[in-house]
Amino acid sequence: MSDKELDAIKEVINDPEHIRNIAIAAHIDHGKTTLTDNLLARAGMISDKLAGDQRFMDFDDQEAERGITIYSANISMVHEYNDDDYLINLIDTPGHVDFGGDVTRAMRAVDGVVVLVDAVDGVMPQTETVMEQALKEGVKPVLFINKVDRLIEEMQLTPEEMQERFTEIIRGVNAALRKYADEETAEKWKMSVQDGTVAFGSALKNWAISAPYMKETGITFGDIIERVNEGDHEGLRADAPIEEVVLDMVVDHLVNPQEAAEWRIPAVWPGDVESEVGQDMMDHDEDGELVGVVTNVEDDEHAGTIVTARIYSGTVKEGDELYGIGSQKTERAQQVGIYSGPRKLTVDSVPNGNIVAITGPDFSTGETFVRKGESEDLQPFEQIEHVFEPVVTKSIEPKKTSDLPKLIESLRKRAKEDNTIKVDIDEETGETLVSGLGELHIEAKIERFLEEKGIDINVSEPIVVFREGIEDESPVVEGKSPNRHNKLEISVEPLDESVRKFLKEDYEEVKMQADEQHEIKEALIEAGMDKDEADSVIDVHEENIFINESRGIKNLREIQEYLVDAFHEFSDEGPLAGEPVIGLKVSLHDASLHEDAIHRGPSQMIPATKDALTRAFLQSTPRMIEPVRILRIDVPTNVMGDAMTEVSNRRGDVQDMEEEGDSTMLTCKLPVAEMFGFEAALKSATNGKGFFNPKDMVFEPLPMNLQEEKIMEIRERKGMKQEMPSLEEE
């Protein structure tokens, strides 16, 4: 970037009306990074000749090797529109579902998104997912339909057929808009060719067109078809440059950060917008109190930790002492700057409305920060949560014991950077369970990362973490402490599905926002819980709830924390195979406790509680519960039967089938445990022409005829007793 361009950025950085924070998001291989290359060529950052081929934003070695984007990449550039300079802070995001967490984090940083759709493939499951991610964060979309040249050159569609294809794609994207946004927003943000919120072209061939641009230049769609058929892509590039068309659309139809604050702040911040700091954010006051949210963390071997953050209020300056609301620690901003792909351009300060690189703070992704001494009691922004949860796990151990501390530190850093990676470390044995969104997620972001750090590791085959649950209500059972002086009467039953869903998806957010306990109770009642039970909640842990149905137990308050500890331990490691328990309602009915506190301490009460819970659980038709993916599979109709056979051979179930031309789209359920190697098997069965995309994930009971075998397999892996758990054993 030249000094002139850097000066232009520094000039516009303080003018929120001329700032656009945008992401480019799409299904994998629909052309996001190729489009980004073109936009960078406009900014003079790469050669026009290399645009569409260089993949400038894929600056990680793996990305170049695999030909896919793995990490979100930031860049800032200036675009001239109607004789004004606009600062475009752009994030190129991954398309592969395994790296969807990067997309979710990017959406917290931006106000607008260019949703890119392949004209040949059309709207795909990941297209819907990125729309869901954007709209959840209050991010406004526009649409770019890519690879139009293929419709003309390869598929030889008539103008009428192409118009039908475009109409179908626009209808599909607007359907996702209606699905994930409220009615008013969906109507206001609806995309159409006529109003200029849709453009189409070829990122690879470097040209694009939109209704406003056609009106301005006189180029017709007939001209486009004729010139593509003549192979005149160079001429089209000169007359309808893609970067000009797309960036004009961005400036004209995506909002500046000051406008976006009106709906984005209430959407992602649970605090009081009428408060002083709330008004600073709503008014977009660069002189107000500093408020920022960390959207990405990276570890630079030369500079140390660099956090990417969106500034929602105030101005962050070099040397600022920053206070993390969640971590409750103060960190110094050693440098502040803006991004230029792999480079960071240092500046003295960055005001609100911008995406900033801050060197120094040891914060985690999602952290809300303020300036030290300002609103340290600020309500933090909502956690940045991905639409899917980690379901694939691998056990990782260092080959050399001396590498254990380095391994632990590296994994902890990785989990800070990517909150869709979960790390469970046993510091005594060195065994570490790492969970991610898929095999590729763990391989690319953990295994390769450790290899680059020089840590030799042993990696297990992929493991699927099951859950444990029950189908029936238990009788009231008695648990005894080891000294036999304390007894507890406890029962368990399945939690109502609506309450379980609330605990899984909304409870933590409600708890964080609630000023008083009764607000949590009201939310539980609204979710379907009985009022008396909601009044008697002792504790909630993950998707389980502990209720006190007893009356007048003497000294209960003194032992309650031990009961809660036992409840947590039991929920984390169920009695069947030590897997997490979900959907459990635990009721305490009565207790007989020793008068002397020394005889009812944790060493007595925790075993007594777990004993009762185990006995009750095993008498309630216990079940192993497995994660199940809902997939969309696209195949040529003539090999549809082979694809269906591959699904059924893996305990899968075809739920729906739609034919379109020579292709068939199958909606299937497939257990995650059966999906390892599925992609290669599907390709083999369909002569390389079948592919799948995840749409959703649910948890369902494992078939009863497979339960005992699975329990024993997991117990063996964990070194547990090689026998089925029973009441006699307990």
Q: What is the topological layout?
A:
Layout: H1 3-12, E1 19-26, H2 32-42, H3 61-66, E2 73-81, E3 84-92, H4 100-109, E4 112-118, H5 125-136, E5 140-146, H6 148-153, H7 159-180, H8 183-188, E6 198-202, E7 207-210, H9 211-217, H10 221-229, H11 233-239, H12 242-253, H13 257-268, H14 276-283, E8 291-300, E9 304-313, E10 315-317, E11 321-324, E12 329-332, E13 335-340, E14 343-347, E15 349-351, E16 355-359, E17 368-371, E18 392-398, H15 404-417, E19 422-425, E20 432-436, H16 439-452, E21 457-459, E22 463-464, E23 467-470, E24 477-480, E25 487-494, H17 497-505, H18 507-513, H19 517-526, H20 531-535, E26 537-541, E27 544-548, H21 556-572, E28 584-592, H22 602-618, E29 622-636, H23 640-648, E30 653-660, E31 663-671, H24 678-685, E32 691-701, H25 704-718
Parallel strand pairs: 1-3, 1-4, 4-5, 5-6, 27-28
Antiparallel strand pairs: 2-3, 6-7, 8-9, 8-17, 9-16, 10-15, 11-12, 11-17, 13-14, 13-16, 18-20, 18-21, 18-22, 19-20, 23-29, 24-25, 25-28, 26-27, 29-31, 29-32, 30-31
Helix pairs in contact: 2-12, 5-7, 13-14, 21-22
Main beta sheet: 8 strands, antiparallel
Low-confidence stretches: 46-71
What is the tally of helical segments? Answer: 25
- Beta-sheet strand percentage? 25-35%
Count every beta strand, where a strand is a DSSP E run of 2 or more residues: 32
- Please state the average pLDDT score: 86
Q: What is the multimeric organization of the chains shown?
A: single chain
What class, by secondary structure content? alpha+beta
Question: What spatial order of strands do you see in the largest sheet?
Answer: 12-11-17-8-9-16-13-14
Tell me the overall shape. Answer: globular
Radius of gyration: 28 Å
Straight-line N-to-C gap: 69 Å
Secondary structure: helix percent = 25-40%
